[in-house]
Amino acid sequence: MHTTKITRTLVLAGFAPAGKLSHLYRGLLPVLALLDASLGKLKWGNRASAVLVLCAATAMALSAQTFTALFSFDGTDGTTAFGSAGLVQATNGDLYGTTFEGGSYGYGTVFKMTPSGTLTTLYSFCPQSGCTDGAYPYAGLVQAANGDFYGTTGEGGANGGGTVFKITPGGTLTTLYSFCSQSNCTDGNYPAAGLIQATNGDLYGTTYEGGANPAPIYSGGAGTVFKITTSGTLTTLYSFCSQSGCTDGYDPEAPLVQATNGDLYGTTAAGGASDVCYGGCGTVFKMTPSGILTTIHTFAGYPTDGSFSTAGLVQAANGDFYGTAVYGGAYCAPNGCGTVFKMTPRGTLTTLYSFCYQGGVCLDGESPDGGLVQAADGNFYGTTQGGGGYPADYFFGSGTIFKITPSGTLTTLYSFCSQPNCTDGNGPYTGLVQDTDGTFYGTTGYGGADNDGTVFSLSVGLGPFVKTQRTYGTVGAVIEILGTDLTGATSVSFNGTAAAFTVVSPSLIAASVPAGATSGKVQVVTPSGTLSSNVPFRVVP
């Protein structure tokens, strides 16, 4: 089991000496956190702190919202502990995701699930000797324009450094690339983040380790940014710690996002110009598709800024980026309980919210490990892995679901472990996805009937909408539009310009970007009303 990522987190937190940890050592993380009283509120036992939580939280349910625990993993069908991944809504209307461990061989799975909660395991990793197909998929999937899904595994492959794979909606998996194929893993090692498909059709991602430059306080490389074609040709675009003192950052754990200006934006968990955090508080960077990287923000940590950003950014309808940091913020000295921030494309960052504002037991949540999603109402929704309504005599909460306005007003929507024995879940490490029926879906790392994690839904009364499977396209390109109850649609328009279209299924329309179309919202008129996209569609040359 690859454990350098866990070790680095512990070393940065002051919990462990540098070096490898055994897989079993993960189970000691909560104990280490409890013993290290010097860390005050003990927020840095990040990945496994929820193991010792007493699941007795009280739900902060608001009116007109419904929480449903849809599915409990039991190990044989996967377990999301130590790395639950986010979900993606596919063109067939189902949700697809991965589990970090479990399955037929214990090394993780790919699954699909209907919105009502029927789960099917599509693939169990490591049926091959040496796990040459990959092992431990830490991140979620992306559905490419060709209809197949693409993802990464943190380990396995021909060289043990992880893989890039594609899998059909029916479950046929192909390993496209095995990392550490080059001497000293200069092509990258341990891809912990998912992939994105850019406007040029290529996939882009990061590796947490490897590359041409060593990390400053660990053995191994500092991480990379790469692109890979859908057929498997990989190019390493950038190796972190290319600048003196690693001011460009290292340990990129979050996926990238392509902005409307065509550049890629991402974060690193460590490094940067600030010396407030041991090993650096991390950075935000932008990169051209060809690999020219610019550091646009260095996190400063507690008490003025966030630190250790492990989730991807989201570009909002107003053009700014929004994201989370696991630590930092104004509360919970000396490391902070995490933040929500916004940032302009040029790098001006504003901290919108510091968690544990409610003090004491952090009823508003702490340590937001997952990213944000901008919903159809214009607000952002996310999760925290800790905090919430739990007994004050325990150190860690079980996590929350929250809503935050673009200006920073936060509302806690749900506290996990509200149900007996945490059957509703415990410790959501990833963000949410909003289905086109308006409902949010997510996963937890623990809890459920067997404490192997759950899949849940949360309805807050938002109505249906449509979203394009790709958020960009040229005039004439066929764009798939996802929705709910699309049968009988009478018109489709791109920012007001009518388009030719075909209703493929109740959940899918195929439309051609019309001549004269400009960037903006996509609208579909159905017998039940007009549905608008929550994300503007970008018409590219």
Structural descriptors:
single chain, 4-stranded antiparallel sheet, Immunoglobulin-like, Methylamine Dehydrogenase, Chain H, 541 residues, mainly beta, 2 helices, 3 domains, 3% helix
How is this structure best described in words?
The chain is mainly β. It folds into three domains: 4-50, no CATH class; 51-459, YVTN repeat-like/Quinoprotein amine dehydrogenase (Methylamine Dehydrogenase, Chain H); 467-539, Immunoglobulins (Immunoglobulin-like, Sandwich). The chain is built from two helices and 40 strands. It has a four-stranded antiparallel beta sheet, with no helix packed on it. Strands 2-3-4-5 form a four-stranded antiparallel beta sheet, with no helix packed on it. Strands 6-7-8-9 form a four-stranded antiparallel beta sheet, with no helix packed on it. The chain starts with a helix and ends with a strand.
